[in-house]
Structures are given as C-alpha cells and as structure tokens.
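Budget justification aside, the reviewers requested a transparent look at the raw inputs and outputs of the sequence design task funded under Objective 1. We therefore reproduce one unedited record. The lines immediately below are the structure tokens for a 120-residue chain.
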C-alpha cells in the first residue's frame, strides 16, 4: 500500500513537472542543458550516480527528452531507486513514441523496466 501511494505521488509530481516545462526553451537554455548532460555523462562514467542524476534533472527542467529520462532512470537504478527508475524508464519510452523504430530501439526502456519489475 505504501509503495503504491509513493508511486502515485511520484507520477503526479512528474506529470505536473512535465506540464510546466512544455514551453520552448531559448537557445541559451538549450546550450545549458547540453552542458548539464555532458557533466552528467562525466559523472556517470565515474559512477557518481547522485551527481549525474542531479545534472540530468536540471537538464530535464529545461527540455525533457527521452534520452535524458533514460539516463536519469539508469542513474536511479544504479542507486537502488527502483520505483523512480521504473517511472523514468516508462517516461523515456513514452517520449520516444513519436520517433521512428530505429530511434526507439536505442532507448531500450522496456528491457530495463522488465528487469526491474517487482516480483513477489
């Protein structure tokens, strides 16, 4: 019961956050998001998952993409935050729906999600 409430609260927060970030970002904001992603990749390579996740959340607040969500989900998974990672893998998959199959194959959210699903 407690997990389900947490998951619903997380989904609601994600939905609200997504609706607030729908405006087109300025070129300077896009440049900042790219720099944040580069910093996140550096932190990922060093296995500094909290720092990488923080940079990714900041980049997502500028422009949400399936790639950023996927990387955030991976960082959360590495930290043992499985509920959060499942939500973000799903969101990455949802954001890639309007892309072609070749692009979607690069974001294997379903594969990661099924590996993490809770099994009683």
């Amino acid at each position: 019961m407690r997990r389900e409430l947490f998951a619903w609260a997380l989904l609601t927060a994600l939905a609200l956050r997504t609706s607030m970030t729908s405006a087109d970002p300025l070129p300077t904001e896009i440049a900042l998001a790219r720099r944040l992603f580069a910093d996140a990749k550096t932190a990922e390579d060093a296995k500094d998952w909290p720092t990488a996740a923080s940079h990714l959340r900041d980049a997502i607040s500028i422009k949400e993409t399936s790639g950023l969500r996927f990387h955030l989900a991976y960082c959360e998974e590495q930290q043992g935050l499985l509920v959060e990672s499942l939500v973000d893998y799903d969101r990455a998959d949802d954001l890639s729906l309007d892309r072609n199959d070749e692009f979607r194959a690069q974001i294997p959210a379903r594969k990661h999600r099924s590996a993490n699903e809770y099994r009683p």
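The helical segments are 2-20, 27-45, 49-62, 66-78, 82-95, 101-105, 109-116. The mean pLDDT is 79. Computational costs for records of this kind are itemized in the attached budget.
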